[in-house]
Amino acid sequence: MNSTKVLQLQDSYIFSTSGTSAGARLVERDRAEILREINYLAGEWPARRILSVVPIRHIYGYLWTVLLGKFLQVDVVNVRGWSCEAFGALLREGDLVVGYPGAWGRWVDLRWPRGVCGVSSGGGAEEGLGKKLRERGLERWTEIYGCTELGAVGSREAGEAEYELLPYWPTRLMGIEAPDELTWQGDRRFRLGRRKDGSVKVNGMAVDLGWVRGVLLSCPGVRDVALRMGRERLTARVAGSVTEAALHGWMTDRLETWERPEIRIVGRELRVDERGKPLFGLFDLEAGVDV
């Protein structure tokens, strides 16, 4: 497809990283990089319509909705905040659904019309989620790995453990620094590890656990805080004389929505195991990141 016929790009674009209040940055990307990515996306996902729940201030949302929609000359529908029932009723053949792991988890029980494809980015999804979606009729479900500085870097289809570099990237990203630890399986396939900066992904947003813990500790009456990443959001165990209502009010003024953990007050002291690690009750059964 000749991109000059359907897409006029400005010289550069500025995107916000998906960082926490402590670390969000603005990143400039030039026209050639954006055009290269859009050309690839349009060839792989020739949608008739795009449905999205991702914000356009970040590169994933903007490229996959605004620019890809213009390139393909298709409608883009923002379905953020829609109920599963309303979203399911809107779906039709040829749709491309752009989401993140938490949203796909809410849609897992939908019955998908024929010919609908989906993409997810912003952290690894629950194991087996893609298989469940495919069993319910989704034609294709692809996880995208990328970052603001580089754009889309790799992809994997439902059921695959490894990502594959997109065709235009050099072998093993030689000379290019990724924000995450990558374990290479050959020259063009890799497994995704933890963030190098120690943050975690919450619905596509990078959250600095140390920053969140510091905000909670600064609340009057809080003695200690333990944080863990649950299935879709942070969870916190808080020791002290503070009430949940007071702590929620404190967080609302100081943390973004995605940074605010689910709170449980546990008394004057945190409960710990024999290694001194905080106990999270049922959450100890889940894989998590402790602070």
Describe the model:
The chain is built from 7 helices and 16 strands. α1 crosses α2. It has a 9-stranded mixed β-sheet with strand order 4-3-5-6-7-8-9-11-10. A 3-stranded mixed β-sheet has the order 14-15-16, covered by helices on one side. The chain folds into 2 domains: 3-197, ANL, N-terminal domain (Rossmann fold); 208-285, ANL, C-terminal domain (GMP Synthetase, Chain A, domain 3). It is globular. It is α/β, with parallel strands linked by helices and 291 residues long. Mean pLDDT is 86; it is low at 1-6 and 282-291. β5 (95-99), α4 and β6 (117-120) form a beta-alpha-beta unit. The protein has helices at 31-44, 59-72, 84-90, 101-106, 129-135, 209-217, 244-254, and strands spanning 12-16, 26-30, 49-52, 75-78, 95-99, 117-120, 140-147, 151-157, 163-165, 180-184, 189-195, 200-202, 205-207, 222-229, 234-240, 262-265.
Main attributes?
291 residues, 23% helix, nine-stranded mixed beta sheet, GMP Synthetase, Chain A, domain 3, 16 strands, Rossmann fold, 2 domains, alpha/beta, disordered C terminus
How are the secondary structure elements laid out?
Elements (H helix, E strand, L loop, with lengths): L11 E5 L9 E5 H14 L4 E4 L6 H14 L2 E4 L5 H7 L4 E5 L1 H6 L10 E4 L8 H7 L4 E8 L3 E7 L5 E3 L14 E5 L4 E7 L4 E3 L2 E3 L1 H9 L4 E8 L4 E7 L3 H11 L7 E4 L26
Helix pairs in contact: 1-2
